[in-house]
Amino acid sequence: MKASDELTDFILDQLAPLGRFAIRRMFNSTALFQDGLMVLLIDHAGVVFLKTDALNRDRFIAAGCSPFTYTRRSANGTLKAVALSFYTLPDGLLEDQEALLDWVRSAGEAARRASSNKRRARDSAFPTA
Q1: What gap in Å lies between CA 79 and CA 71, rounded to an integer?
Q2: Which Pfam families match (predicted)?
């Protein structure tokens, strides 16, 4: 078993009180989805990231967390850093189940808000008669 699989299993055990999570490999990372929404991301180095938005991001910044970033090539060939709306988990949180559950709940709420905002934008772009 790879170390990343062991970390994923540990996190899933810690998150068990929140219900079921689905696992998908993406961005050279492991993503955990709850109710079809990506809530948590574990990168190839084992760094854990949680979903953020305008309502919970300040909490992550105040805790010294940093965003998930990757580099991509733009249309003109230059490299560009791209930041996703996922921030690192505060240090020491994996071992504190209650605190971890609180932060993951916040990430789940951010994911639901983002999904709701996308639906609203899509629905307003295609109004029904």
Answers
A1: 6
A2: TfoX_N
Rounded to 5 degrees, what angle do the CA atoms 15, 118, 88 make? 40
Residue indicated by tokens 């690192």: 88
The pLDDT tens digits of the residues spanning 17-56 come to 999 999 999 878 999 999 999 999 999 999 999 999 999 9
Question: 10 Å Cβ neighbour count for 58?
Answer: 10
Cα torsion angle, 89, 36, 9, 20, sign: positive
CATH number for the domain formed by residue range(s) 3-125: 3.30.1460.30
What ranges do the domains of the chain cover?
Answer: 3-125
| Whole-angstrom distance, CA of residue 70 vs CA of residue 84 | 8
| The overall pTM is greater than 0.90 | no
Q: Which residues pair with 73 in a beta bridge?
A: 79
Separation CA 19–CA 21 (nearest Å): 7
